[in-house]
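pasting NAD-dependent epimerase/dehydratase family protein for the record, 357 residues
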Amino acid sequence: MDEAMIKLITEDCKKSCKNSVLFSMLKDQTILITGGTGFMGKWLAEMISYINDKENFNIQLILLARDIKKFEKEMSHLADRPYIRLLRQDVRNVHDLPVEINYIIHAAGTPDNREHVSQPILTIETFYKGTQAILDAASRLPDLKKIVHISSHLVYGEWDSEDNISEKFSGKVGISSINNVYAESKRIAETLCLAYRNQFKLPISIVRPFAFVGPYHDLEKPWAINNFIRDGILGGAIRILGNGSTVRSYLYGSDMAYWILVTLLKGQIGEIYNLGSSEAVSLNDLAKKIQTMINPNLEILSKSSKENYTNLSRLVPDTTKIVKALNVEETYQINDSINRTIVWNQLKGINKNNITK
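structre below
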């Protein structure tokens, strides 16, 4: 990875990590991250590496994933760190975990709705069998201190209010649509966490992620902000599916990683926390922001879409609970988040020859 790209990531971690001394509790401890090579896993690895470099805490990190070669290729600046261990395994087939593990962040599984529709059985198995396998193995660890289960905002179901979504809300999920396989799978995974917490006394907290932005997001994933940035960098029209009135919010990657690690240490057992930004933005305004930052002359096009996976026009979390209970805050607002994501991808050399439109 280019030195300028690494520098930008390090600056992000430094700014987001408000209290690195807090992580003294992790000194010489071992953390397992399932789904360790995805967007979340990469940012967590970056944040833990930053904390180790700054505080010399010797936090050990085990990243479990099906494709560790991807991490070795894309994260070569971290792959050879002595405290990072890559473990190739399908989460569904986990039987026993290394006995030295003290903390687990269970983040396995893709949020890509195209894969949920094309491979619904794999989606269900990953979140049901995979979660059960991890919790079974965790119940046998001799010195387990905490598990953070990464769920999804889609467990909230249908939402038709202009308010932000709080952890107390519970809506319905239509079980007759294949598009809801992911949401239902995440719901049963949360139920498994509840069952294991009650029956085996596993120390579990749950976070429900909303949308994120930042380096390491694959610009080909089917999310508006990724595609807008991709289109803008490539010099084409920024294409909005729908009329652009849909409202979302985006938490920056380094803030996301810091909030998860704080939840690992300070989150109450049995509690659920929203993970996302409370700064709402419509897709129209989002496209205009990206247009202004890349090239004001770029065209913005809107077109109707038959692919309505969530049927939710507004998805913005109420983050009051996590902000107050865990004393975290958003370091990067939407404009800075977009700008740094654009700069990082430009440094990466995104162009028509290395990305498929």
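The chain has a mean pLDDT of 94.
DSSP finds twelve helices and 13 strands in the chain.
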